[in-house]
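DM from R.C. (forwarded with permission)

"hey, sorry to bug you on a friday — could you get me a structure for this? deadline for the figure draft is monday and I only need the backbone to look sensible"
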Amino acid sequence: MNIFQIFLLCLSITADGFAIAISFGTHAKHISKIGIPLAFWMSFFQITFLILGFLISKLVSIFFSSICNYISTVLLALLGFKMIFDSFSNKKENPNKKSIFLLSFLANLDSFSIGIASFTLKNSIFAICLISCALTILFTFLGIFIGRRFGSKFNSTITFLAGILLIVSSFKILF
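My reply, with the result:
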């Protein structure tokens, strides 16, 4: 795999976090108050799952990779449906530390499979982690900015679209 393919791979696993960041941005009063913890936990779990997948791939690569893909797809799709449902309700919930932590964990389960694939394809896990972390931080802040910028006018529409994006990106894991 060349560096451009690694870049595209890392870009694809940031889509989940981008959708979550847009949704969180609709409720953000200050970008840094949500952006820093969200970017930290997104990057932390992405790197953790990439490395775990890379290290565990020797033991159970085929079995665990397929199970992890199905679990990730179901959880992220459910999260997307919840976001769509929330877009129709009038109540506004501010993101808290627990939701930031949990969503960061769930959104990055697919990174485990990428870690396994990087071992089997003999790719540099260091390059994948570095590029993935940089893109995750960039797209987290970009998503929060977009959500904050357009959230006051289009709050329910943005949350709805973020839910759709999360559902679509959850199914990309399977294919």
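R.C.: lifesaver. DSSP finds six helices and no strands in the chain.
me: no worries. Residues 6 and 127 are 8 Å apart (CA to CA).
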